[in-house]
Amino acid sequence: MSSAGNRARFLAHITFLILASVFVGNHELRAQVWGFPLHVDNHADVVRTGELARVSVAIPEGLPIFHPQFDLCVVDDQGTRIASQAKVLSRWYGLRSNPSAQVKWVQFSFRADIDPLASRTYYLRYGAEEQAGIGIQELSGRLVIDTGAARFVIDTTEFSLIKRVEIGGVHVAGPGGLRVVDQNGALPNAVLTRSLVQEAGHLRAVIRQTGTIPSVGLAFTVRTTFVAGRSDCEVDFRLENPGHYGEVAGLGPNPEHAWFDTLQLTMPLVSAPQYVQGPDGTLPLGGSSFRLKQDWQAPAQSLNHLGGFFYEAHFNGNVILNGNRADGVLAIGDGTRAMAVSVDRFWENYPKAFSVDSGGMHIELWPDFGSGPSFGGQWATLSSPNLDPLADSCYRFEGGRHKTHLLKLDFRSGSAFTPSELVDMAARVATPLIGHADPESYCKIAAFGELVVAKRDWDKISNQRFERLCGCLARDDVADAVGSVPPVGFPAFRARGGTYGGEQMYGWQNYGDITWDDGYSSLHYGLPYSMLLNFFRTGDYSFFDIGRDSALHRRDYDQVHTLHPASVFRGGQSYEKGFHHGNFRGPTLSHTWVGGVLLHYIITGDEASYEASREIGEYVLRIGPENWDGLWGARIPGWSLEALVNLYNFLGDTRFLASAVGVVDAWNFQEAEAGSLGYVPNNGFAADPHAQSWMQAIMLGALGKYYLNFGDSAALTTMTRMSSWFVNDVIESRPTGPLTAKTAALVWRDLSPTTGVAVLSSHHVWTVSHALAYAGMALGARSLVEVSEDLWESKTRYPQISAGAPGPFDWTDPATFSPIAFKLNQFPTSESKAMGNMTLWGQAPMAARVFLDGAW
Predict the structure, then answer these.
(1) Does the bond joining 681 to the residue before it have cis omega, within 30 degrees of 0?
(2) Distance CA 275, CA 419 (A)
(3) Phi-psi sector, 633: left (phi>0), alpha (psi -120 to 50), beta
(4) Which residue among 364, 399, 426, 717 is least packed, with the fewest CB closer than 10 Å?
(5) Span 220-239, average pLDDT
(6) pLDDT(256) > 60
(7) Closest listed residue to residue 648, CA positions, set 476, 427, 448
(8) Is the pLDDT of residue 238 over 60?
(9) Which 8-state DSSP code applies to residue 675?
(10) How large is the average pLDDT for residues 53-69?
(11) What is the rounded distance in angstroms from the CA atom of residue 388 to the CA atom of residue 397?
């Protein structure tokens, strides 16, 4: 291995020679290739024409790019320059707003043309970006956006969604608005508080508006995106409760929840609509009303939650059509003008509805159905009396919560939409064109600050099985059938209603999250991070498709967004226990993960995820993990250090780095105070302070990641002692014997030097393997990486063995291996936690081995 100084620069500093070959050199030598490839996959069975594609690229350190719009352009697969727009997401060692810091992550947007279910490769090359023709005017009381295909007017004095839409000089639609019915049946006013041009590009423009609904106690943020050459726009509507969070005692002031009966966005045509169109056909209105509503009821088969969905179309109050799951798309027209609306994840976030009357289209994001009975405790136990009777008829929107809905509006003049076009529109909205670079480029230039290697055609059984294990986060087809249970990945786990069925993981409060033994998981152990990291390292769109839903729930509903100044927990992640997504206790540093929100921002460029990431960072800084008192385990400073490293890597705020340095210094001091034994006992166990090895491993892994990113040698001495403790005292059984009769690994989970308490564990081998991989890379100790690999090889083959049955097994015989599935027989009702552990902690051992083999 290289010297310690070079090892410290392994993740943070890549030489220009390496980056040149990875980033541009080799690609430009290939015939018919025009630069650095950007792969865009169309996962819908529809043609994509002139549709906005987004690809985020990691720029290696040392490549002097500070203003990518002047340095890099996009060409198609024929070498023709096309209009593109660069957005700086992150810079090396600096804020994204600092133009003197070199660009680290940048997103390129461009219009793509792709056949159904096909892929197309575009390319980056040196040169200024090609300009497109969008225009933005900031006038008194309004903003005017001219895409060339349509002219949109946004009112800056009152919220009207879109005040006016013109196509070819013809006034088509507007003004719209926000309609809320409160718990008493009144219609409170929405007050617009701010309007700004958040992104003033030549290809894409984003308008951000904020407002309040004072009498209800709610707020909202709306981001509307316009693209040059297009007559449609994307609306990102976020409902917010800035009030105090939770039902948990000791969190400060009383909860400030909000209740409302319905909430809808409205958008009229210039005249009353004469017809309504859906995927099933066209219906003349004749002055009548129409409504399509989507809901859910418990199905006859508890393992088939998808069978519980139903929709009904009502015409003049009579049911004229029904079915299972609506596409979430509808159009109206008056004979000369037409408008179509598609709501993303329509049925998944039930209840939802569309209604049409003389006032136009009403997009009922919260129709007048109510939340249903409110439960107390960790699970669905009806309180006596009912915890919240008002929720039976109204929506209960708790303090600190956010919820985002994404919809697309399209407008026409002189022609109508067809039912088949509406089907295609829904498919396009459900599968945004999010592309990727070659997976190796992300991993080789270490833009994640993580030990991670790109997926490839592995020849090792352990690597193949770990890829399948990760695949279960997004797919069912990579899982094993277990007895009579068909293959279950994350999608099937959600659709079956959890381990034994009956748990609801759909609906506006739940979709994206999953249940576990003690309530809703709030995506603990960074499940969205593992999902989205695997999108980067594999290029498989499935990981993005499911990861974005989980990241959005984690960002919105699983984070405390209260603006209440008395709440020290604002920005923290909702705790993993409680039927109402973390209402059993308050946020803690030990249960706050930021990686998934950061990667969602990096992949999509979503400013809401950027804001939420900074909010999390402020929470960590406010709590001050460097002041940890030694109680309740080393995972508290460990996860905090992990979060701080991620925050600095992606956001560049030096306060996060300073806090990380403080955490390391405090840990070094406490480990020395405890006797320099390689661990810090959990003093929360007052009668018998002892070490929980899995928590110590979280800390050791974080120390290794910290060192490899920043090269601070202050961590090395303590890491050496910790590694020795793990190898000599924690690992009870390192795999031994020939491959055909080899034992599985075991570790001691709890170790007490005074009472002799020692509890064996098979599952926690994962975190020990992860920690030793990081320690080995940081310390330059090949032997530690080899121990890590031994443990990892055992767990990839036998992830579900118990501590009481360690073999020996025939490691060459797949018939002896544990089945791979999201539904784990060994961890019933705790799959979310176990799979979060395995897919997160399994990355580093594989990457470290590949690096040592010279196959990086």
Answers:
(1) no
(2) 13
(3) left
(4) 717
(5) 98
(6) yes
(7) 448
(8) yes
(9) T
(10) 94
(11) 12
Nearest to 8 by CA among 852, 778, 784: 778
Is residue 91 predicted with pLDDT exceeding 60?
yes
All residues at 6 or more sequence positions from 169 whose CB lies less than 8 Å from its CB, including other chains: none
Question: Which residues does 757 contact at the CB level (< 8 Å), separation at least 6?
Answer: 688, 690, 750, 751
Nearest to 583 by CA among 391, 385, 830, 398: 398
Torsion on CA atoms 26, 28, 34, 38, rounded to nearest 10: 20
Question: And the tokens for 213?
Answer: 């609904």
DSSP track, 579-616: TTTS-SS---GGG---HHHHHHHHHH--HHHHHHHHHH
List the structure tokens of 168: 């070819």
pLDDT tier for residue 341 given thresholds of 50, 70 and 90:
very high
Each residue's pLDDT tens digit, 31-52: 335 689 999 999 999 999 999 9
Assess whether pLDDT exceeds 60 at residue 265.
yes
- Under DSSP, is residue 854 helix (H, G, I), strand (E, B) or coil? coil
Distance, CA of 855 to CA of 619 (rounded, Å): 40
Report how far residue 410's alpha carbon sits from residue 244's, in angstroms, rounded to the nearest whole number. Answer: 38
187-209 burial code (b ≥16 CB/10 A, e <16)? ebebebeebeeebebbbbbbbbb
Residue 846 structure tokens: 């594989």
Encoding tokens for residue 546?
């499911």
Q: Which residues contact 384 (CB under 8 A, 6 or more apart)?
A: none
DSSP H helices, 327-448, are 419-430, 439-444
In a 3-state reduction of DSSP, which class is residue 668? helix
What is the DSSP secondary structure assignment for residue 513, as one 8-state letter?
B
Cis peptide upstream of residue 385 (ω within 30 degrees of 0): yes
Q: What letters, b where the CB count within 10 A reaches 16 and e where it falls short, cover 282-315?
A: ebebeeeebbbbbbbeebeebeebbbbbbbbbbb
Contact criterion met (CB below 8 Å) for 744 and 794: yes
Q: What is the dihedral of CA 363, 365, 367, 373, to 10 degrees?
A: 180
**Tens of pLDDT, residues 733-759:** 999 999 999 999 999 999 888 887 788
What phi, psi does 439 have (nearest 5°)? -55, -35
- 186-190, 307-311, 629-633, 775-779, range with the lowest pLDDT: 629-633
**What are the structure tokens assigned to 197, written together?**
């041009």
Helices (H), 302-432: 419-430
Neighbour count for residue 662 (Cβ, 10 Å): 17
Kindly tell me the sign of the dihedral angle through the C-alpha atoms of 748, 751, 757, 763. negative
Higher local confidence (pLDDT), 284 or 580: 284
Query: What is the pLDDT, as a whole number, of residue 811?
Result: 97
Which residues are registered as beta bridge partners of 82? 74
Question: Per-residue pLDDT averaged across 321-325, rounded?
Answer: 97
Nearest to 65 by CA among 99, 21, 40, 36: 99
Strands (E) in 127-272, as ranges, are 135-139, 142-146, 151-155, 164-167, 170-173, 177-182, 191-200, 204-213, 218-227, 232-240, 258-267
Count of C-beta atoms within a 10 Å radius of residue 661: 18
Angstrom distance (rounded) from CA 557 to CA 580: 10
Which of the four pLDDT bands, split at 50, 70 and 90, describes residue 374? low
Cα–Cα dist 421/48, whole Å? 12
Q: How many residues does the chain have?
A: 856
Report whether 520 contacts 510 (CB < 8 A): yes
Count of CB atoms situated within 10 Å of the CB of 756: 9
